[in-house]
Amino acid sequence: MTHDGATLRIGILTSGGDAQGMNAAVRAVVRTAISRGAEVFAIYEGYQGMIDGGDRIRRFSWEDVGSILNKGGTTIGTFRSMEFRERAGRLKAAKNLLLQGIDRIVVIGGDGSLSGLDLFKQEWSGLLEELVATGEINASIAADHPALMIAGLVGSIDNDLVGTDMTIGADSALHRIVNAIDDLASTAASHQRSFVVEVMGLALRLPRPHERHRRWL
Q: What are phi and psi of 147, to 5 degrees?
């Protein structure tokens, strides 16, 4: 609840490349927020859903995030929105959030997604002023939501953002890589050759038969 007794409304979206574990993060956010009395709205197709509004922003219940832990990717979709990179797109996004009474958002994504989130927060007051000036929203709505509260969860198989030991998706990706390398090692040993396998820009050299106990990553 807010200081004036209103129910908190939180938006959650996944953005950029999909990663294993995003569904678990969505589930955790939704159920934790609901258990604390907040209302949660899933924003479908990343930032583009925020811009499009309408049924792309849907209130989620406890049951809406049931049975999704075993699913890969993200059940609420993701999209690399070029429109959100422009101020006009962010203006539409702000309006659609305000129409739902949302001024808190959780974004699960990589560096670009979280950088866009930070910019959106910085511009929020200016966006509200413009929306009021053009008559898109009334002044009372803007007064009720003077600031945008944000939280970013790093979803990236690259594990390349500072501030977290393991990003969402990195552990699953590494397991897939290790399993694939173990399978290929049999072929390398059979032909007595070394293989070079490139994975997301990282080079891995398969060991020669007498070096099987070692891996390079």
A: -135, 150
The answer as to whether 83 is a domain residue is yes
71-115 pLDDT per residue, tens: 988 999 998 899 999 999 999 999 999 999 999 999 999 888 999
Asked if residue 128 has pLDDT above 90, the reply is yes
Q: Is there a contact between 141 and 98 (Cβ–Cβ < 8 Å)?
A: yes
The active-site residue out of 55, 103, 158, 171 is 158
64 is catalytic: no
Residue 115: which CATH number?
Answer: 3.40.50.450
Instruction: Show the domain range for 206.
Output: 171-211
**What's the pTM value of the predicted model, to 2 decimals?**
0.82
Same domain, 87 and 180: no
CA distances 205 to 170, 193, 195, 197, 201, Å, are 20, 10, 6, 6, 13
Quick: pLDDT tens for 189-202: 888 888 888 877 54
Domain count along the chain? 2
Q: Are residues 160 and 207 in the same domain?
A: no
